[in-house]
């Protein structure tokens, strides 16, 4: 190359005009080999998307720490260390990007399948219980939101949702959440489903609350319309009293024994005047006096 003993340049990093060369001029065209290779020069500054995805599926979406059980998931397909998210929620310092998480009710505990290997940071946090595929970012995984099971997309495609209901259900089609979505369209779809799911849950809670209130006796006493008691007019009451008085008078005339029970107002006044007058009181009680012999 430079007449220094017959050294032949065979490494791409030494060749001008390639993507890997650190001394490539910005005015030179990329050429046929532009962008080829993964080592040397400018390629060292590039980030491998596979490594990025592998790192994402192994770390907490909140604290960026290695995922360790217990693990929870949100409705947008992100995984968290449960202790980390609990501390953040209790201190109310949740970042703005996670403002859609209102509390533990917006999170789901994940059922993890243990990995039968030596523990380490490079090992996946779980594997698919059907296919044994690891959650390492190389294959898509889904979450059954209703039950918290994490399965691979391959298991769902090969077995079908109906076949998985017995062991990993119950779960409906709209409850299947794609973990770690990268497509913006998929993320928007998950957000829309999250909104519909929360609206349906809120409606169910309102219906249950209304049923409980309807069954409670206090609510029934306050809410039930009060039935109005039939009122009798003053003229009707007087007419009924007059008719009853006339009926009693006729019965007394027919049966003298009723006179001992009923009395008219005039006789009652006369009797009361006898007992109030001292002169007449002796005359009234004299026939009933007796002596002991």
Write the layout of secondary structure elements.
Layout: H1 49-56, E1 71-73, E2 79-81, H2 82-91, E3 108-109, E4 141-144, E5 150-152, H3 153-159, H4 161-168, E6 176-178, H5 184-215, H6 217-223, H7 234-254, H8 265-276, H9 278-285
Antiparallel strand pairs: 1-2, 1-3, 4-5, 4-6
Describe this structure in words.
This protein is mainly alpha-helical and 293 residues long. It has nine helices and six strands; from the N terminus they run H-E-E-H-E-E-E-H-H-E-H-H-H-H-H. The chain has helices spanning 49-56, 82-91, 153-159, 161-168, 184-215, 217-223, 234-254, 265-276, 278-285, and strands at residues 71-73, 79-81, 108-109, 141-144, 150-152, 176-178. It is rod-shaped and about 160 Å long. The model is unreliable at 20-42 (pLDDT under 50).
């Amino acid at each position: 190359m430079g007449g220094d003993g017959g050294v032949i340049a065979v490494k791409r990093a030494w060749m001008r005009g390639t993507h890997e060369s650190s001394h490539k001029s910005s005015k030179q065209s990329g050429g046929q080999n532009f962008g080829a290779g993964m080592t040397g020069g400018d390629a060292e500054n590039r980030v491998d998307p596979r490594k990025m995805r592998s790192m994402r599926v192994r770390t907490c979406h909140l604290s960026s720490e290695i995922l360790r059980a217990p693990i929870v998931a949100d409705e947008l397909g992100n995984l968290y260390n449960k202790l980390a998210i609990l501390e953040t929620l209790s201190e109310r310092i949740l970042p703005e990007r996670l403002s859609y998480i209102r509390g533990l009710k917006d999170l789901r505990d994940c059922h993890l399948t243990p990995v039968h290997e030596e523990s380490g940071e490079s090992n996946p946090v779980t594997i698919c219980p059907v296919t044994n595929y690891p959650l390492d970012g190389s294959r898509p995984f889904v979450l059954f939101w209703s039950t918290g099971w994490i399965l691979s997309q391959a298991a769902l495609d090969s077995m079908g949702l109906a076949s998985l209901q017995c062991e990993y259900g119950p779960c409906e089609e709209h409850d299947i959440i794609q973990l770690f979505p990268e497509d913006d369209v998929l993320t928007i779809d998950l957000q829309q489903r999250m909104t519909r799911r929360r609206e349906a849950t809120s409606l169910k809670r309102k219906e249950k609350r209304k049923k409980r209130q309807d069954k409670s006796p206090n609510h029934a006493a306050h809410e039930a319309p009060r039935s109005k008691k039939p009122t009798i007019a003053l003229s009707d009451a007087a007419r009924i009293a007059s008719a009853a008085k006339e009926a009693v008078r006729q019965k007394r005339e027919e049966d003298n024994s009723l006179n001992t029970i009923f009395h008219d107002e005039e006789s009652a006044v006369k009797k009361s005047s006898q007992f109030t007058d001292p002169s007449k009181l002796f005359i009234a009680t004299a026939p009933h006096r007796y002596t002991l012999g």
